[in-house]
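At this stage, I put together one protein's amino acid sequence and its C-alpha cells, which the following lines show:
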Amino acid sequence: MMRGFLWSPGYKVEAPSIEGSAMLSPSQVRSAAGLDGRSVFAVDPEQARERLMRLAEVKTARVRVGWPNRVTIEIEERPPVVAWNDGGRIWWLSAEGLAYIQHGERPGLVQVVSADPVLGVGEDPLAPVVDPALLSAARDLRDAFPNAAPIIFDPVHGLGFVDPQGWRVYFGDGGEMTIRADVYRAIVSRLVERGISAVLVSVEDLTAPYYLVE
C-alpha cells in the first residue's frame, strides 16, 4: 500500500524546470540529471547535482525538490572562449582548457586551427585538454590582430597566422603577446620600407626574432 502511494502518478517527476541553460538544451540537462519519470520521493538532489557537474559545459549546478512533484534545476554554464579545429574536428574550449562539442553558432569566439590533432581529449570530461595559458595567449593574439583569422597552432612554432601580405608569422606559445605583437609590427614596417618579401617571420623568441626570404 505504501509503495503504491510513493509511486502514484501525482508524485511522478514529469519534466524538471530548467534555469540557466543556453548551450545545453533542456532535454540534455534533464537526461544528464536522470530525473524524468522518477517519483519525487526517489529524487536525490545531491546525486543529480553531481551528475550534472560531470558535464564539461556545467560550471555550477543546483537541484531543488518541491511538493508534490516539482523539481527545479539551476545551472551556470562554462562559456567557451575558443573554437578549436583540431585536425578537422571542432571543439569548444573553456578558459580552463576543458573541451566540449560545438553547440550551434557563437559569434566572438577565437578561431584556432591545427592541421593535426593536438588536443588531449580523453575520457574524463573535466580534464583540461590544453594549457589554459595557451588559450589566454590566443585571445591576446586575436585582440592584437582582430583581422587575423583563423589563428594557426603549430606544435613546433606555436601560435601564428598568415599575414595579408602573404607570409606566415609565429609568436610561440608563451605569454607577452602584446610585446610580441609590437615587435612583429616593427619588423613588418622594416620589411615594407625595404621592399622585402618574406616567407616567414618568427617572434617565438623575443630575444632573437627573425624573418626568412625565398
In short: The first helix runs from residue 2 to 6. Confidence is low (pLDDT under 50) at residues 1-7.
